[in-house]
Write a structure and sequence with these properties.
By secondary structure, the chain is of the alpha+beta class. The chain is built from two helices and five strands. The chain has a single domain, classed as Conserved Hypothetical Protein Mth637, Chain: A (2-Layer Sandwich), CATH 3.30.1200. A five-stranded mixed sheet has the order 2-3-1-5-4, covered by helices on one side. A hairpin with a 2-residue loop joins strand 2 and strand 3 (37-41).
Length: 105
């Protein structure tokens, strides 16, 4: 007799990718729209992952999600990075980025 395992789709299983262009050692911390992704300026230096940690904090604050929902999946030592955002769909993420554009206009 076969047993079938049922799985539930949880909100925490929703994931999206976000392209980020990092600008470490900036004079101020800010986020701007940049192509299909965003550009994140942080004051932290790109040493021992300090800038990456600062970017994670800023993304979590901007997206209003916990820091644990933001994971760097590509570009640890490069300015072009890809982050995995848990708990937001691609549409929700796009809406948040569009809000960023409307605030800066």
């Amino acid at each position: 007799m076969k047993r079938h395992v049922l799985t539930k789709t949880l909100a925490s299983e929703i994931e999206s990718h976000l392209v980020v262009y990092a600008r470490p050692k900036s004079c101020q911390t800010k986020i701007e729209r940049f192509g299909e992704g965003i550009k994140v300026y942080v004051t932290a230096v790109p040493d021992s992952g300090q800038a990456n940690e600062a970017i994670v904090r800023e993304l979590a604050k901007f997206l209003k999600i916990p820091k644990s929902a933001v994971s760097l999946i590509s570009g640890r030592t490069h300015r072009a990075k890809i982050f995995l955002i848990s708990g937001l769909s691609s549409d929700q993420l796009r809406t948040k980025i569009d809000e960023l554009v409307s605030k800066s206009v």
